[in-house]
Amino acid sequence: MTSATDQHWMQHALTLAQKAEQQGEIPVGAVIIYEQHCIAEGWNQPISQHDPTAHAEIVALRAAASQLQNYRLLNTVLYVTLEPCIMCAGAIIQARVKRVVFGAYDPKAGATGSRFDILRDTRHTHQVTCQGGVLATACGEMLKQFFTGHRKKIH
């Protein structure tokens, strides 16, 4: 069941995904919440930053660590519009994020149950609570429209 709080923060992440799209990036946005306050934001920037690790989640994790002055992001919640990939899932575990809430599922590269299930793997020393599908239609539609438009530009 999705709470009003989860919907609120996912809507905020969607506005950040729009920033990514305006910059020619794949539209994915992320926010990190600590004690019910947004402490960090991120959106996809690998193209503009010339950095393959500049996914929305990584950008937000770096900003949150800087904000808290700690590489451990204990008791934080990460909201992201697309299911995290393997790279981002690894960073989320290393940061000790408590909970991840995502919008659209990613059947090709998702690491939170779609393709892999990295975050809930009990072999890690830290387990992350995960919930997917929050505002999934809106998140998925944004990505679908982006890729449809992108393909038209290529052909």
Which key phrases capture this entry?
155 residues; 19% strand; single chain; alpha/beta; five-stranded mixed sheet; 5 helices; 42% helix
The portion of residues forming beta strands comes to 15-25%
Task: Please list the strands of the largest sheet in the order they lie side by side.
Answer: 2-1-3-4-5
Number of helices: 5
* Main sheet: strands, sense, barrel: 5 strands, mixed
| Unreliable sequence segments | none
The best one-word shape is globular
Structural class: alpha/beta
Overall pLDDT confidence: 95
Share of helical residues: 40-55%
What's the total count of β strands? 5
Query: Which sequence of SSEs, written as H and E, runs from N to C?
Result: HEEHHEHEEH
Distance between the termini: 41 Å
Integer-rounded radius of gyration:
15 Å
Mind sketching the topology for me?
Layout: H1 4-22, E1 29-34, E2 37-43, H2 46-49, H3 56-68, E3 76-82, H4 86-95, E4 99-104, E5 129-131, H5 136-154
Parallel strand pairs: 3-4, 4-5
Antiparallel strand pairs: 1-2, 1-3
Can you walk through the features of this model?
The structure is a single chain. The protein is α/β, with parallel strands linked by helices and 155 residues long. The chain is 42% helix and 19% strand. It is built from five helices and five strands. The protein has helices at 4-22, 46-49, 56-68, 86-95, 136-154; strands at residues 29-34, 37-43, 76-82, 99-104, 129-131. Strands 2-1-3-4-5 form a five-stranded mixed β-sheet. Helix 1 runs parallel beside helix 5 (136-154) and helix 3 (56-68) packs parallel to helix 4 (86-95). The longest helix is centred in the first third of the chain and has 19 residues, at 4-22. The model has no long low-confidence stretch (mean pLDDT 95).
